[in-house]
Amino acid sequence: MKEFFKREDCRLCGSRNMAVVLDMEAVPLGDDFVTREQLDRPQGEYPLEINFCNDCGLLQSTSVINPDIIYSNYLYETSSSLGLVRHFEDYAAYLMDKVRPPKGALTVDIGSNVGALLKGMQAHGMTVLGIDPARALARKATEAGLETWAAFFNREVAGRIRSEKGSAAIITANNVMANIDDLTDIMDGILELLSDDGVFVFETGYMVDTVQNGVIDNFTHEHLCYFSILPLLSFFDGHGLELIDVKRVPTKGGSIRGMVQKKGGPRPVSSNVSGLATLERELGFEGMAPFTVFARYAESVKTELVDMLTRLKAQGKSIAGYGASIGSTSLIYYFGLEPFLDRLYDDNPVKIGTYSPVQHIPVHDSAEIYEHRPDYVLNLAWRYAGPIYRRHARYVAEGGHFISCLPTVEVSA
Ligand SMILES: [Zn+2]
């Protein structure tokens, strides 16, 4: 596969009847922060175009980067993200309660990272197996007693799991489905691996939340799909599967947790499924209207933010950013923030001392705010504003100012 290609057809239904919602032109891989030694390494910028399928209603990126480039050397550990450890413990408890799998049965997690969910499932006595293409993470999980294969899940891998370990009572995929270009191969694998009364449970960003809450930082090269229920219903149906339950969860700015069984399986279909489908129709998500509103909103935030930062710079103020992540890269590129930011702050040890993708804005430990004393810190990690502002109350007390960019542009202190 080439480094990059542009899709012309819808990833779920194959239609070519697509309309552009957001065009981000040239954006690098959002998580490709480099060390000082890697500063000379060439990094690509690729067009990022978000399209709406007029036939099935899927919002999606038509720009596809070879997954080997993104994931094989991936370093981001799920457990380092604020609030996610507790999330996975709760998730394991939810699965056990909701699915009631046979004692000790096999549960497979696709995109298992360092095994946060597997650890929870193991604690409930389940046999666990992780599948993750990031070699370093897979090794780390396996060493911690959570067997993980360094691979991309597909039909071939599913067949190998089945012949070595039998069928799976539970297959999970959290924040994975949106990152896969060939979803048919994954669905075929799930159909192959799942036991007849087993379930596939996935969590993925919910398009309605992304659009309604203006989560512009969700638009990255890693996210290929922005799922909603309506396009998924017919997609699963076409692959021998059926959606039997769905609920909205607050993860990552608004997500859905869906439960799927083999078509005609033993579990009843919850009214939650038709409920959410109805809501999407009522909100007009079968057509372009909500996306037009969203695009206008994103444009107005951009204008307001750039005007404010331009004014501050003209007054000689120093400005830093808070957040060195895949999402912050998106915001820096979409808003065009590079000329304004002297540096970025972050709390993730993996990111501290690195430089942002392509633009090489240096990343510092947030503790250094008190040495540098920037006049303003633009919070790019806006969904974590609460904990960040609490942690750095002293910065504000000593005369510093945080600027929020989303959902609205304001100087918060
Ligand atoms: Zn479609």
Short description:
The chain has 413 residues and is α/β, with parallel strands linked by helices.
Describe this structure in words.
The protein has 413 residues and is an alpha/beta fold. It has two domains: 78-287, Rossmann fold; 303-411, 3-Layer(aba) Sandwich (Rossmann fold). It has 14 helices and 19 strands. It has helices at residues 67-71, 84-99, 116-123, 135-143, 155-165, 183-193, 207-212, 229-237, 271-282, 289-314, 326-335, 369-372, 385-391, 393-397; strands at 4-6, 18-27, 46-53, 59-61, 63-65, 106-110, 127-131, 148-149, 168-174, 194-205, 225-226, 241-249, 255-262, 319-322, 344-346, 363-365, 376-379, 401-404, 410-411. The strands form four sheets. Strands 8-7-6-9-10-13-12 form a seven-stranded mixed β-sheet, sandwiched between helices. It has a six-stranded mixed β-sheet with strand order 16-15-14-17-18-19. Strands 2-3-4-11 form a four-stranded antiparallel β-sheet. The longest helix has 26 residues, at 289-314. The mean pLDDT is 93. The site of zinc ion has 8 residues, from loops. This is C-methyltransferase. Residues 10-71 form the Methyltransferase putative zinc binding domain. Residues 250-407 form the C-methyltransferase domain. It comes from Pseudodesulfovibrio aespoeensis (strain ATCC 700646 / DSM 10631 / Aspo-2). Pfam families: Methyltransf_13, Methyltransf_14, Methyltransf_23.
